[in-house]
Amino acid sequence: MAANNSLAGDDFLLRKVQFVVLQSLVMIFLFINLLLIITFLKKEYFYTTARYILFALTLLSDSFLLFMSDILLIFTHFHITIQVWACIIIFVVVLVYITVTPATLAAMTLERYVAICMPLRHGELSSTRNTMNCILIIHGISSVPCILILSTFLASASLSYYSKYQFCSVEVFMLYIWQHNLRSALYQFQFLIMSIIIVFSYIKIMKVAKAASGDDKKSSKKGLRTVALHGFQLLLCLIQLWCPLIESAFFHINFSLYEIARYLNFLLFYLAPRCLSPLIYGLRDEVFFQALKYIASFGLYKQNLIDKMN
C-alpha cells in the first residue's frame, strides 16, 4: 500500500514538473514572438515587404493558436470540463488557425520562387496590396475545414448536447466515424496541395541555383534552405493533424496516458513547428536580425544594415 502511494506521489510530481516546464516554454515562445512582432512594426521596410508581412502573419497565427491550445491543455491538466457551446467558440479559432500557418508557409515559398525565378515580376506580384489579398485568401482557405466540421456537428447534435460538460477537445465534435474521416480527408487534401507547392518551388529554385553564379548563386542557395525549412515545418504541422486520433485512442484506454500523450504532442507538434518561424526569419534573415538586436538592446546596439531598409 505504501509502495503504491509512493508511486502515485512520484507520478503526480512528474506531471507537475512536466506542466511547469511546458508552461515556461510557452511563455518564452510567446515573449520571443512578441519581440519579433515589435521589431516588425518598428520599421516601415518590414511592413511594406511581402515576405516580412507573411512572416508577421505566421507569428500572430502561431501565437494565437499556441495560446488557445495551451488553455485547452491547462483544462486537461486540472480536469476542468466546460459546456459544449463554450468549447465550440474556442475551437472555431483553433480549427481556423491550425491551417493558417501551413497555408502561409506555402505562400512564403511561392514568394521566394517568384523572387528567385521571376525577379523582373517580383515587385509587381509581391506588392503590399497583393500580399493583403493573399492573406484574405489564406484565411478563406483555412476556414473551409472549420465550416464543414462545425456544419456536420450542428446538423448531428441534439440541443441538449450543447449544455453538457465535457473535456474540451476536437473529439467533442466527432459524433460519428464519418465525421473523423471527413476531417482527415479535408486536412490531408489541403496539405497535399501545400506540399506540391513547396516541392515545385524547391525544384524550380534548385534549377536556378545550378545555373546561377556569384551573388545570384548564394541567394538561390539561401532560398533553397529556406524552402527546405518550410517543408520540414509543414511536415510537423501535418503530423499535428494526427495528434487528436492518437489522443482519442489513449483517452478510451487510460486518462493518465491521455494526459501524457497530450503533453508530448503539444511539445513536439504544436510548440516545435512554431519555433521554426522565428529561426527562419528572426535569426537567419540578416536584415531582420540586425533590427531585432537593435530593439532587444533598447537601441544600444548600432545596426550595420539599417541603411538597407531606408
From TrEMBL:
InterPro entries: GPCR1_Superfamily_Member, GPCR_Rhodpsn, GPCR_Rhodpsn_7TM. The keyword Membrane applies. GO terms for cellular component: membrane. Residues 32-281 form the G-protein coupled receptors family 1 profile domain. It comes from the Eukaryota. The chain crosses the membrane at residues 20-41, 53-76, 82-110, 131-155, 185-206, 227-251, 263-283. Its main location: membrane. It is found in: Membrane. GO terms for molecular function: G protein-coupled receptor activity; odorant binding; olfactory receptor activity. CDD domains: 7tm_classA_rhodopsin-like. Keywords: Membrane, Transmembrane, Transmembrane helix. SUPFAM superfamilies: Family A G protein-coupled receptor-like. The keyword NAD does not apply. PROSITE patterns: G_PROTEIN_RECEP_F1_2. This is Mu-type opioid receptor-like. It comes from Seriola lalandi dorsalis.
